[in-house]
Write the structure tokens for this entry.
Amino acid sequence: EDKDFEFRPTAEPSIVTTRGKAKGSSGTAPAVIVNELGSGRAVFLNLDVAEYAVERLNPRAHSNLPDLVAGLLGLADIRRRVRVIGPDGKRCPGVEVVAFENGACEHVAIFRNPQFDVEGLGDSPNIKRGQSGEDVDNSFLETPAEVSVEWPSAMPTYDVRGRADLGAIQTYKTRLDPWWPLIFTRSLEPLPKLRLDVPATASAGSCLKLKLQNEGLLPAGTLRVVRLELDGPDGHHLEIYSRNLLFNTQSHAERFPLAHNDRKGAWRVRAHDIATGQVMEETFQLG
């Protein structure tokens, strides 16, 4: 349906429709023209959108451009994978969402998207002079925001950075930090738990053999990333033995060549499944 948008200025105020249909207007000129072409459509955006980079940094600005673009993409049945809603019940501004597919799983990162590039911003009041030249005032995006993360349907969801199993959810209320992303794993089925098997004893100069075992079937095509770390008898982490594992099999065996001069005593092995946040710890005696 036609809708009046508060966009200014119209890029070409003299444009009129012929076969196309005006889907919105800015003043008396059509702002969006859609022309059906067989099974497809062509969309002409008759708007100057250069100021949006500045408008989104102003908490008092109410640009309709994101809603307009979402509506145009909706004409092609392109929908948001996830919505991030602010405490006022509206779309949270200045947020970027990145999604990666991992077999039947999905990894989603949500983070603030400040304006670093000043090219084309002209004499906007949101540009300030810094010690090294031009700088952009991103203060609107540099405070924590209470948000509601909304997906199209409920699915097993894991908070990667929080190392938490959130269960099968469709909506999750949390705080979006201005400097740290929210990262989620979602899967059609719950991801199986991992089991860490470590021998009770090992000898200095030998190979420590450990095993990671999925206690159920992984979703088809899903890769699992596990961080392995070893702590010595003094409790200090030994980076030389740390590593990341990538596997999609039911089980995985890993070897650690131990040094002849490693300290004797009780050692600790820690395995952190990145996607689900599950952490496992086992000890062995080095003699």
User: Anything to note?
Assistant: The first helix runs from residue 52 to 55. The chain has a mean pLDDT of 88.
